[in-house]
Amino acid sequence: MKAKHIFIALLTVCVLGLSSCMEQFAELNQNPSDVSTPNPAYLATRAELLFETNDYLLWFYNQALYTKWSQLGATGSYTEGTFGMGTAVHWQNTYITMLNYRNDIYNYIQAYEHPEMEAYAAMCGVLAVYGAIFSSDINGDIQYSEACQYKYGGSLTPNYDHVEDLYNTLVEELDDYISVFQDNTQVVTARQDIIYNGDLAKWARLANTLKLKIAVRLYNNNADKAKQIASSVTSNSAGYINSLEDAFIFHKADATTGGDLAYQTGNGLAGYMSTGSKNVIDFMKACKDPRVRFFYEKNDYNSKVVQSFIDAGKYEDLPGFVKENIERDADGNFVAWKGDVEPWVRYQGIPIVFRDSPEYNAMKGEYFDYADRYSVKIGTATKSFGMFSAFNEEMVRGRVDFTLPTIPGGPSIRDTEDVPWWGMYLGAGETNLYLAEMALLGASVGGSAESFYNRGVQLSVQEWDYIAGKNKIPYYNATYNYAPDEVSIELKDGEIAAMMATPAVKWDGSIEKVYLQQLMNFSMLPNEQFVTARRSGYPKIGSNLLPFVKFKEVELTAIPRRFEFTTPLVTDVMHDIRLQNLKDQGFTPGSAQSGMGFASTTVLNTERLWQDKNAPQWGSAK
């Protein structure tokens, strides 16, 4: 098998070197039999524990940029600085860690003749492929084929894989891994596999499904090859991820005595993650999409908070979208929600608007005036209340303390439970929406675009409801017994059917709806969402579903599609190779827009990654 063959020369060096190792042990006055050897099962478990792409740095830095450039999130109004780089982090090396573990296991198998353990190496290999796709999405060419082989006789300065070649390599490796998983001589200990509990059929489905992620990324540059890969996925005997039970969803531990493995990260992210954009949240509410409740937090304006503004004589200071959705009695007091009732009324986003533009000035008082309009004083107590819906931090990490919004002088109601974090990396909703896309683009994938689309949307809602429940996000199966009309946010009977019947979701053969549902599904996977918006051109300018706003103040070509690549240091052992690769990719190193003004350069839009070269401009879907 190719995945194993690539190591033969290197592993032969290691095996032939065992005699020299014996001599080294003698020199150290150690008995080789007393030296422990690695166990592939333990190595694979450790790899799974360390696997992470949607990590702290992604949410702390990049997510805000991804979502603002694609207009799928906001951190306030847009400014010139929105289109600069700031301190963004564009590297992601999870795949390197996975390759190291894969190679170590292959080394053990060869040295100690345990071919029945090859599935452990294949498991690490599948995780490496996932990480390589993730890294190449942002970095373009990456070091892969020659990487992580130095200790087995390989190069200390591995060459880069061109993205197109990388995709071919990854598809070949995935096919090899599938063969390993389907080999009934393989022995895997269930308790050492925290992802699929030793179920190699599920590992085979994950490996097969990963090829779809490659196919959709390849389409703009090689449509025929992309369709061929998609067809091979649905015809493969391994099957693909098509149910919640098969989804790549897991949590690493129920508790941990050190570090953050059980909780994703202990670092606070509030203030760095972006907030939902008004366009996106309004779209999801028009779709009656329950996922808006899982992805975003309720704002602070429950009915008791609203009444506190009325009691304080500050009714006019309530946000307009609150006032238009409340029913008042003859004395002006709150009676009930109307229009967008609970819980929908509590989800509000930030408008996509450019600072100091006429549009901004027209809505400044409503959305961007933060003086004392959103605070209220009762007696000696004063509180401020947030009107917008931030991304739900408890969907990202398990150590978050939630405080219920209560009126000044009211009770303190808090949820401080640390919940082991559950993450979704590849679900059946994503899979079916890819198949709907490829079917519309002409691929033979064993079903109709309509059937894949409908199943994809439904499964996406169910999967994210499952994740929200596992992460015990605020208001899931809870109202906290404070505001009497508060409604919990878990998925309710009949909601999926109601969503599928809305005009914005109901199938009509439109590929725009397929892409928009992919974008919604990826709301908690910001890298995937950014890549989908970049390769598809959606949201689209002028759309009557979810429009992309064309600013008068900035050209589309000034909106970045990648991060800056700095000039490698002359002291870097990889200096010449890195510099040559930047030239090969057509990148001008050190071409950041930060601090230069968006009008001064467009290189981060026009000097594109290979997979992005033929994609539509922002908002300009074909």
Structure description:
This protein is mainly α. The chain has a domain at 1-53 and 92-240: Alpha Horseshoe (Serine Threonine Protein Phosphatase 5, Tetratricopeptide repeat). Helix content is 41%, strand content 4%. It has helices at residues 2-5, 8-16, 18-27, 40-50, 56-69, 94-112, 118-139, 163-181, 200-218, 223-235, 278-286, 291-295, 303-311, 320-323, 358-368, 428-440, 449-470, 495-500, 511-521, 526-536, 575-585, 603-606, and strands at 248-250, 326-328, 334-337, 375-378, 381-384, 402-403, 414-415, 423-426. The strands form 4 sheets. Strands 1-8 form a two-stranded antiparallel sheet. β4 (375-378) and β5 (381-384) form a beta hairpin. It is globular and about 85 Å long. The protein starts with a helix and ends in a 16-residue tail after the last helix.
Note the topology.
Elements: H1 2-5, H2 8-16, H3 18-27, H4 40-50, H5 56-69, H6 94-112, H7 118-139, H8 163-181, H9 200-218, H10 223-235, E1 248-250, H11 278-286, H12 291-295, H13 303-311, H14 320-323, E2 326-328, E3 334-337, H15 358-368, E4 375-378, E5 381-384, E6 402-403, E7 414-415, E8 423-426, H16 428-440, H17 449-470, H18 495-500, H19 511-521, H20 526-536, H21 575-585, H22 603-606
Antiparallel strand pairs: 1-8, 2-3, 4-5, 6-7
Helix pairs in contact: 2-6, 4-6, 4-7, 5-20, 6-7, 7-8, 7-9, 8-9, 9-10, 9-16, 16-17, 16-19, 19-20
